[in-house]
Amino acid sequence: MTSSGLKILNLSNNIPNSNNNIEIPSYENIYNYMKNLIKKNLELNLYKNALFYAEKTLNFSINHDNSSFSESIYIFSKCLFLNKEFSRCVNFIQKYNMIYYNLNFLILLGQALYACEDYESLISYLEKENINFDSENFSIENNNNNIENNNKNNNNNNNNNNDNFLISIKYLLIGKAYEMQENKQPAIKNYLLSLEYDPDNIEAFNILISNNLLTIEKKNELLNSLKFNSNNNWLSDYFKSKIEDNIYMTVKSECNLNLNLNNSNCNLNSNSNNENDIENEKINIIDILYKNNDMDLMKMESEKFFITRDYINTFNKLKKINEDDFYNLEIIPMLCSSMIELNKIGELYSLSYKLANNCGDKYISWYAVGCYYYSIKKFEMSRKYFLKCNQLNKNFPEGWIALGNSYAGLDESDQALNAYRTCLRLFPGCHFSNLYIGMEFIRTNNFKTAFNIFQNALLLNKNDPLVFNEIGVVNFKQKKFEDAENNFLNGLKLCNFNDRSLTMMTILINYGHCLRKMRRFKEAIDVYMKVYWIDSRNVDILNAIGSVLSFVGKYNEALDFLHRANFIKSNDGFSIDMINKCINDITD
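RESULT FIELD:
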């Protein structure tokens, strides 16, 4: 070897003559082949491979027609986004000045800016008006010149539908950006515009409902304004179910399909003796989904139970979802709350431990940890973890309510009110904010303000028995015992008596106190005994029964209940005083 340098070989001289007849591929064939490679890799989530071929496709098409070049830019930008190179994606679209070339580019730019948390730029780009977009649409598919478009009207309709879909996504992104800036009214306006263009945009709807951004009137207005077609008419039932916290079906299923809807292993391809009859039968999609344990509908039903404080059914439904799909994090707030109410401290500890270990980067994990410490009354520790949860996601209403509750547990009323008011400002449709603010005003004996706030909570949700209980408490404190009785009874009507929840027992005890004040002692004892059979070691209820029995002269029975209370809590001053009073009355 005469030279130490690298030698570049000309392999063309070594190619056998027999291969000189190999057909040279056309530009279109190579371009489509590369697109096909990108598509295959994207389908298998091999984003780095797809990005490699996308870059080659881009450079290969630079000197070709504008259509394939602009398409290559879009494909490469999309691969950058999927590979989580968001800043690079933004710079690349800006470099080639493709922002307003096509709606697809604008949407992709908005998604990348949102991922970069550059909300100001996102709003600036996407809110620009009077933009004339090219009608060209991009897809990573092979071109087939043999496809004939025989129905131009259908193609035009499809293009219009696609444009509406993209415009809907544009408004969704703008709304999300405004919400991250805590600018709620423009956010709500853009979410509504998003649904106006495309009611299939379920994310916009779920944000409006789940984040409590609308009042009941606004929710109903939204539902009435949406226009559905025959293919998505079932969404109308779904939306109504979501708004009303109950499974809603406009048409009951009475079809005789050859399906066993109660069997999760039903054969969808089973044959029927009368196929024409089957084709003509009306079926309800929500009904089928519900009977086949659709998790989203199960969660929706759990919300209905939760709002009415039916914690046993809430827990049972959510536990089944959690066992089938542990990483379904949307159910965790309700599941933790039901565990606290049912005093399932061991299961709550196990859940929070698993979440902290497996999903330590998720805000919901630290919410669960905070709930565990709250359940064992370590309010200082719970506050620490709720603060961490809110730092990771400030648009989480349950986090703000829980933080306020932890402050209330420490008797820090001002801090608790700040947390509740923050929740009310961020989520104006959340009735829990008004409920807990009113509770804090009761603690400070500001009954008139508390009553007005509870009325606001009642306007937002008429199905929560705890709201009626708190209104009854205000009436009781103001010595309006008949009004208090009516509100306690309204709250009890919303309770499930098979559910031995703390809420139901609280309302029963308050109702008993109200009857006692009205000197209806026999009725008061009957109500107290309902609580006693649920929790026979409750000192407050034992004292209440004993005191009422002493009022009606049944001193021996009264002493029996009072001694039990004193045995459970030996330093209880009320039971000791009542025991001495009963003994004195007996001796006299």
